[in-house]
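Task card 7
Instruction: Convert sequence to structure tokens.
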Amino acid sequence: MSNLLYVIGSPRGPKSESTAIAETFLDAYREANPAVEVDTLDLWHEPLPVYGPAGVEAKMSVFAGQRPEGEQGDAWSGVLRVFERFNAADRYLFAVPMWNHGVPWPLKHLIDTISQPGLIFGFDPEKGYTGLLTGKKAAVIYTSGVYGAGRGPEFGADFHSTYFNDWLRFAGIEDVSDVRFQPTIATADADALRRAAHAEARRLGAGFESPELAAA
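Output:
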């Protein structure tokens, strides 16, 4: 039985396009996999620990092979708590709207909190980084109001999916599917794009445990 962590990156609730598409994916996934356990992490309603100076020093202590203690130890305990919840899942669903060409800051906060040595990645001075979250898979819903593939720079740039997909790979999550509704505002026919995105989300959700269906 799979455990899926559903990470909500939009604060707009039922008005959010990315959340609505993610819910379509989730409905199809649950229908195909009734025994699945879903943990929902709404980044706007579950504050993460502030990863400040003590957290940074704790990270450097771990890099040096030392155990964080005192204030650093407290900060590191907060990191471990968030990471353990994230790592408990073997499937992920992310609703990721574009903000200023990138990802919303609470999602970046999550990434910076758990991207730690020995947790998300290993490091070798000669071989570089190694992602540690292997054997997992993710689905990502990408939406943007104005940016769209093939549009000129006057419509924005994609530091959104490029950044997040790279982070997933960095963490060791290589099996990644995405659904895009771009743009959601500056388009002549948003309804057609919306219907297509929901249809793709439904297809991916239904086949998320079956590589043959998901790749069809």
